[in-house]
Design goal:
Elements lengths: L11 H14 L2 H10 L5 E5 L6 H7 L6 E6 L2 H10 L5 E5 L2 H12 L4 E3 L9 H12 L4 E15 L5 H13 L8 H11 L3 E7 L2 E3 L10 H16 L37 E2 L2 E2 L33 H7 L6 H16 L4 E12 L1
Parallel strand pairs: 1-2, 1-4, 2-3, 4-5
Antiparallel strand pairs: 5-10, 6-10, 7-10, 8-9
Helix pairs in contact: 1-9, 5-6, 7-9, 7-10, 9-11
Length: 355
Amino acid sequence: MTGTEGHDHADTRYLDAKATVDDRALDRRVADRLREELPPSPTVFDAGCGTGVTLPRLREWGVEPAGYRGVDTDAGLVAAARERHAADTVSFAVGDAVAAAREAADGSFDPDLAVAGSFLDLVPVGEAVDTLAAAVGPGGLVYAPFTFDGRTTFAPAHPADDLVERIYHETIDAQPGRNVRAGRAAVDHCRRADGQLLAVGASDWVVRANDDGYPNDERYFLSCILGFVADALFVDGGDGEGPTDSAEAESVDADPTDRAGGAVADADPTDRAGGTVADADPTDRAGGTVADADPTDRAGGTVADADPTDRAATALTDTDHTAADLRDWLQCRRRQAEAGELVYTASQFDVLYRA
């Protein structure tokens, strides 16, 4: 996961929504190589297991683990995983996954495969890869899908995109052990290590709406991503509120000028949240630049008075942008997501290494 502190990225619903994004992103060539290399009925260690999504994914590939141990720092996720995947050969534990892998290397558990999905950007890359490799032992496999690698993009374009990405990534990198370029760092480390880098592939996240809107619960996933970015931009995440529940959000089929919850059928179409914006750019109707418009956020909160984080304020001093541009970026992206117009991508690698 690539969020910052604030909005909860150890949220069960977020991880469930993320699963369909991951399924699309997965590099099939790397996955096929993994299946070729696995022994029959392998024993699996899952670092940062979340809700245990690795288990059904392996089974979909025709792989039935003889034993499985998942470790995650979040007790709520571990509880959900235990409820979903109860079996005699399956166990989940709350704890530090790298420390648990180190214990496995000492003989407490003997895995053939260590999985580290969306994990290596959360921890020191080299230490984690070496510890997982030691856990599986010579000839064992380390599989690290969805390893973030330093590119976050949103479309349509906004003038503040580059600045927002810079602040977001610098905020991530400032956290102990984090690395927004973990994908390339993992590849480089595996190349130089004593084992063999078996396969590398791109597994970029791409989230966009189709004719029926965002698929599955990916509207919620997208709102979480915007929440992570908002936490990097503003001291209270923009409005102090979490992601919008897609089941409760205003319908994208509603009149797009309705942004304040009230009926607008008879209202002047230039009316936005109760105030006339007749002098605003007429092309702004759910997604354009709104620098001159009412600063009320149409998709869940007000960011007009939100204060930039210290990092964002420092970044602004090196540019021609202002805090108002950051507020406009967040308002614009929330409206676009609400209307099914926002496209989000994140660059990632799938890495397969033989110890």
